[in-house]
């Protein structure tokens, strides 16, 4: 009689999903890295040209409000229910990597402004 521990049951249950996620990462890693770096570049460029944007829009809060609104819409699409189409899921994941790069770019640009 073979007894299975809880750890063995856990590993056997999630090994298929781990294999699927590692295959997805191996297949899409270059495009994910490119989108992450592109988002980082856009975040730095946005911080650099923010003074130029102030000539077109009178309120700084309007620029930030639109940016936060777009990021929140993307967050809603990333973290909503899992019943999405596969194509839409991949596009949303790629946009999420762009968003992560954008936020890292803002974070680094905030350090440049603060020093």
Keywords:
115 residues; single chain; mainly alpha; 4 helices; 86% helix
Topology:
Layout: H1 6-48, H2 50-56, H3 60-79, H4 86-114
What does this structure look like?
The protein is mainly α and 115 residues long. The chain has one domain (29-114). 86% of the residues lie in helices and 0% in strands. It has 4 helices and no strands. The longest helix has 43 residues, at 6-48. It is elongated.
| First-last Cα distance | 67 Å
Gross geometry: elongated
**Assembly type:** single chain
Largest sheet: none
Compact overview of the structure:
The protein has four helices and no strands. The chain has 115 residues and is an all-alpha fold.
């Amino acid at each position: 009689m073979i007894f299975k521990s809880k750890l063995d049951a856990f590993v056997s249950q999630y090994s298929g999903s781990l294999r699927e996620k590692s295959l997805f990462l191996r297949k899409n890693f270059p495009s994910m890295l490119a989108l992450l770096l592109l988002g980082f570049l856009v975040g730095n460029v946005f911080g650099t040209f923010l003074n130029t944007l102030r000539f077109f829009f009178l309120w700084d809060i309007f620029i930030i409000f639109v940016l936060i609104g777009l990021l929140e819409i993307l967050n809603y699409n990333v973290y909503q229910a899992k019943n999405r189409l596969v194509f839409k899921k991949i596009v949303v994941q790629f946009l999420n990597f762009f968003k992560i790069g954008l936020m890292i770019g803002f974070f680094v640009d905030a350090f440049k402004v603060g020093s």
